[in-house]
Amino acid sequence: MARGPSDPCCHLWDGALRSPKEPLCFPTLAGLSPGLQSSLSPWTSAGPWRDWAEPSGTMVGLKPSEVPPTTAVKFLGAGTAACFADLFTFPLDTAKVRLQIQGENQAAHVAQSIHYRGVLGTILTMVRTEGPRSPYNGLVAGLQRQMSFASIRIGLYDSVKQFYTPKGSDHSSITTRILAGCTTGAMAVTCAQPTDVVKVRFQASVQLGARSDRKYSGTMDAYRTIAREEGVRGLWKGTLPNVTRNAIVNCGEMVTYDIIKEKLLDYHLFTDNFPCHFVSAFGAGFCATVVASPVDVVKTRYMNSPLGQYRSPLDCMLKMVAQEGPTAFYKGFTPSFLRLGSWNVVMFVTYEQLKRALMKVQMLRESPF
């Protein structure tokens, strides 16, 4: 029910947003009639009125849990949120891959007559020439990657950060956060590299009817074929540039998100809700794209290259600079940013809400009532 000036309670709250520790404007009910005092007594700062008046009452989404999320909740929440984000942004990732390999000497010969221009142009060209499902080539491998990859690099970040933080310290330093980001990023790549190789192969393959260069009938067939033709090491092709890339991306995403969110809360610019998560995630996506784009281009080209085209990631990088110039490092930057920026926003917002939802479920299960 709406409260207006005629409401006896209206003058008791001045509309200011307060922290949970700050008392509300209920100094006394003595000025009211005994009957009204009795009816209002449950709505003091200890009751539901507190939730209506304080920032948590205006919060967009679920309120933070009083109990910190467990490692298992973070692990499961991160993987699920990352899959959700991939479903929304996968066409942008596919467009990024196509733009990154464009201009490569031995790129798929069936695509020589196709030239991609810009993010939207790339997606529209793919839909027109390869069908409406083409922007989602490799989605299955992409979801497999996120469940194993994001669960580790995002879900374990806080635990590793606490492990590196000296005992007795109230705050983690930037160095500690960077070290935690690099550690979880490297761990994630080690486990999830085969899924990334298969995802990139599907995204880079061009399907033009009889001239299709697709070698695999499905995701599992891709794992088997790569292992048979290139050896088991083929599934871990490009691990070094991918470790480098994801260490940088993880620092750019997790550390930047961590710091921006912390500062926004410390300076009381936002409360811990959707706007704060959105701004922090957007900033993290931009920083990650800027620092990781050069390594990302080398990683994509090296993982997609046929056997023997490049001797090493360094050879791939040197040939790329010699043939196309240093600007090649930022090929596909716009789709990279659109994809990474939007992916970060969807993932972190979903992740924060999933952590709270899963903790509420866990607390309800453990409650004796």
From TrEMBL:
Q: Where in the cell is it found?
A: Mitochondrion inner membrane
Membrane topology per record: Multi-pass membrane protein
One GO cellular component, as annotated: mitochondrial inner membrane
Q: Does the keyword Mitochondrion apply?
A: yes
- The record's principal subcellular location, in a coarse class, is mitochondrion
Molecular function GO terms recorded? oxidative phosphorylation uncoupler activity; proton transmembrane transporter activity
What keywords does the record list, in alphabetical order?
A: Membrane, Mitochondrion, Mitochondrion inner membrane, Repeat, Transmembrane, Transmembrane helix, Transport
The record's Pfam families line, in alphabetical order, gives: Mito_carr
Name the Gene3D superfamilies for this protein: Mitochondrial carrier domain (1.50.40.10)
Give the family per the record: Belongs to the mitochondrial carrier (TC 2.A.29) family.
Q: Would you tell me the protein name for this molecule?
A: Uncoupling protein 3
In which organism is this protein found? Equus caballus (Horse)
